[in-house]
Amino acid sequence: MTDTGWSIILNAVAALGFAISLFYYDPFFYTRMMACLFALSEVVILLQKGRIKKSVYIVYSIIILFLMVIANQYDQDRVDVWQTIILCICVFTLLRTTYRSLYHKPCT
């Protein structure tokens, strides 16, 4: 199985886990909801691998990063800067990994 296939499976499992957790766990509801939508959208993007242009993916990445930060800030009583920074780093790493799997050719 290719790396893209494994990414699709892992994102689908993550989306299922986040969707189930929405019904059983109260804290960080909006952050988990955005993480579920993020995982589902990654599955769709990976399935449409050849049809997504770079500019569309970059706009998508900016929107997802912005919405994750907003959801995280909405879930907290007070602003926790370090938690927001770590969340941004994690989301950016996942977006960059998907970008590389979509648009970079492996060096041989």
For the sheet with most strands, the description reads: none
Query: Percent of residues in helical segments?
Result: over 70%
Let me know the average pLDDT: 88
Based on DSSP secondary structure assignment, what is the total number of beta strands?
0
The Cα radius of gyration reads: 15 Å
User: Could you give the distance between the termini?
Assistant: 19 Å
Low-confidence stretches: none
Main structural class: mainly alpha
H-E string: HHHH
Q: Which word captures the global form?
A: globular
Number of helices: 4
Q: How would you describe the oligomerization state of the chains in this entry?
A: single chain
Strand portion, in percent?
Answer: under 5%
Features:
108 residues, mainly alpha, 4 helices, 80% helix
Description:
- With 108 residues, the protein is mainly alpha-helical.
- Helices cover 80% and strands 0% of the residues.
- It is built from four helices and no strands.
- The longest helix is centred in the last third of the chain and has 23 residues, at 81-103.
- The two termini are 19 Å apart.
Short description:
80% of the residues lie in helices and 0% in strands. The chain has 4 helices and no strands. The longest helix has 23 residues, at 81-103.
Write the layout of secondary structure elements.
Blueprint: H1 3-24, H2 29-47, H3 54-75, H4 81-103
Helix pairs in contact: 1-2, 2-3, 3-4
